[in-house]
Design a protein that fits this description.
The protein is an alpha/beta fold. Helix content is 29%, strand content 21%. It is built from nine helices and nine strands. It has a nine-stranded mixed beta sheet, with helices on both faces. α3 packs parallel to α9. The longest helix has 18 residues.
Length: 308
């Protein structure tokens, strides 16, 4: 009952207990790296995405388990502007806490890559590494920049098909642009995620410079681009679904706070909509992975409680 998730793997036996039987092999999933960490394995895979039309990478941390058949819950992490899948893996220190709580952590890249669309690398806050977890509707982005569909319609199925997961028992978290993504994905898909948390999220992108630039390019003018469908502060006002608590974490020495992030707008909108919210303000912490690493254990523990 060995590896289904690694087609090109030099150490099948080391990973066998975390993956589906061979009868469920999905072609095209390739192991790029593996490192032992806190008794489990930090891995990175690539695959050809049908949704995005390019090769995509994602990380998977597989915690140690007692037996070969144990299915585990999953926490998805979405990274921020300029990041790839590597930043969270190398800087957040999440593996220790994922091992303690016996949860799988999956973290995808932040945009399509290698497409060479004109303008996709002209700035750090639009295009490559700045997909904003939405579905673009404007040329030349609309055929490939569909990170929302990639996660909801492709990545979740890919993970559940190839690893020993508790299908449907998943949570989501993220940072900055990725915090925006985590909030939007949970609010637009009631019940899909058991819990959601965000470090320094872009909470009201329709009114901040990063969001206005991204939404204008990917979605078109505000008047016709339905920006409110990708803005957590607007989405929470009409949330109708199972009980959902928003966990917002914000460093008070963040250079982008409040102008780019606007968490208090989301907090007030949530209260008005009757959606409970935890808002933790961290004195002296900034926007960096030093901040994330300081509190990632608290967030993973929070999600683990909801995933029991």
């Amino acid at each position: 009952m060995y590896l289904a998730c690694i087609i090109n793997c030099p150490a099948i036996r080391a990973f066998g207990k975390h993956c589906r039987p061979l009868s469920n092999i999905m072609t095209g999933l390739t192991e790029l790296s593996r490192n032992k960490s806190f008794g489990g394995w930090q891995t990175v895979f690539s695959h050809e995405s049908k949704v995005l039309g390019c090769t995509m990478k994602f990380g998977v941390y597989l915690p140690p388990t007692e037996n070969d058949t144990e299915n585990l819950p999953v926490i998805y992490w979405l990274s921020g502007l300029t990041c790839s899948e590597a930043n969270f893996i190398e800087k957040a220190g999440a593996q220790r806490y994922a091992a303690e709580h016996k949860v799988i952590i999956v973290n995808p890249d932040t945009s399509p890559r290698g497409l060479n669309i004109p303008g996709d690398s002209d700035s750090w806050d639009f295009g490559v590494a700045a997909g904003f977890y939405l579905n673009a509707t404007q040329d030349p982005w609309k055929n490939n920049y569909k990170m929302y569909d990639y996660i909801i319609k492709e990545l979740l199925d890919l993970v559940n098909s190839n690893f020993n997961t508790q299908a449907g028992n998943q949570s989501i978290m993220g940072h900055s642009m990725g915090g925006h993504g985590a909030l939007v994905l949970s609010l637009k898909n009631p019940g899909l995620f058991k819990s959601v948390s965000a470090f320094a999220p872009i909470c009201n992108p329709s009114i901040c410079p990063w969001g206005i630039k991204a939404f204008s390019g990917y979605l078109g003018p505000k008047e016709t681009g339905q920006w409110e469908e990708w803005d957590a502060t607007e989405l929470v006002k009409k949330y109708k679904g199972p009980p959902l608590e928003l966990f917002i974490d914000q460093g008070l020495n963040d250079n982008f706070y409040p102008a780019q992030l606007n968490p208090k707008n989301l907090v007030e909108a949530s209260k008005g909509a009757g959606v409970p919210v935890i808002f933790k303000e961290r004195e002296s912490y900034n926007h960096s992975y030093f901040y994330i690493a300081s509190f990632i254990g608290e967030h993973i523990g929070y999600h683990a409680q909801h995933l029991k």
